[in-house]
Design a protein that fits this description.
252 residues, mainly alpha, two-stranded antiparallel sheet, 74% helix
């Protein structure tokens, strides 16, 4: 098989893995809200289900990273690759810590509902709804930055005509879930601005490095995903004249 065909095959696989990653991101972050059925002592099916989230997400990020690494191997800029790895590791740690913090504090909060004015509830709320979500969503953003750094360091010109429709379809899952997490997790203060900054940086660096955006699955995936999230943030903010949580509106 020719080198160009091998590169094309890897890029097709990358588009597929991006779809698996994005759909898993949506599934594991939205589905638990609809699984609030008690098992025992206010332990919900959603809690047990949500334990799987970091295992699945970190594995998929690693898989995408490995595919990217094969494509970037011919690039001699090892410093950039090292920076990307550091960002990915930091993102994974932040994501896992935020997820675990939120999951446990959220479960404990069910037993503290009658005492909302107590210092104990206030502390639990801080770890559940504030710090937990900041780390959780911050980790996802760091993971995207790490993958983008590698994408800008890849030899994308070896591949052509990747499965663009598959990549765009994957971006819909990611963009929608990113928006949902930002609103419900009360992290709009940084998720909204970054939905503006990241696509602009992708366009700027893509132009500077003369990279064809639509030829690179990771770049096109995150570009369309964050553009969708940005559009939803704007729509939601105008509609409600602010960013109320879905739970505040009684939607979940």
């Amino acid at each position: 098989m020719k080198n160009s065909q091998i590169a094309q095959s890897r890029y097709d696989n990358l588009s597929l893995w991006l779809l698996i990653y994005a759909s898993s991101y949506a599934f594991f972050h939205i589905m638990p809200a609809f699984l609030n059925f008690e098992i025992k002592n206010r332990l919900m099916i959603a809690d047990v289900f949500d334990i799987l989230t970091p295992f699945v997400m970190v594995f998929l990020i690693y898989k995408i990273y490995r595919i990217q690494l094969m494509e970037a191997r011919g690039n001699s800029n090892s410093t950039v690759k090292s920076i990307a790895v550091i960002i990915l590791i930091l993102g994974a740690i932040t994501f896992v810590e935020g997820h675990g913090m939120h999951l446990s504090a959220n479960a404990i909060a069910r037993h503290l509902t009658p005492t909302k004015d107590s210092p104990l509830y206030a502390l639990d709320y801080f770890f559940d709804e504030i710090l937990g979500h900041i780390l959780w969503d911050g980790g996802i953003i760091l993971l995207s930055v790490g993958l983008l750094v590698i994408a800008f360091n890849s030899n994308e010109d070896k591949a052509s005509n990747p499965k663009l429709l598959l990549t765009i379809f994957a971006s819909l899952f990611y963009g929608f879930t990113y928006f949902v997490n930002g609103v419900e997790g009360q992290t709009v203060v940084f998720t909204f601005p970054l939905a503006i900054v990241i696509p602009l940086v992708i366009l700027w660096l893509g132009h500077r490095k003369r990279i064809q955006l639509l030829k690179n699955p990771v770049l096109s995936f995150y570009f369309f995903a964050y553009i969708l999230a940005l559009s939803l943030f704007i729509f939601w903010g105008i509609w409600h004249k602010g960013f109320p949580q879905f739970s505040e509106l009684g939607w979940v």
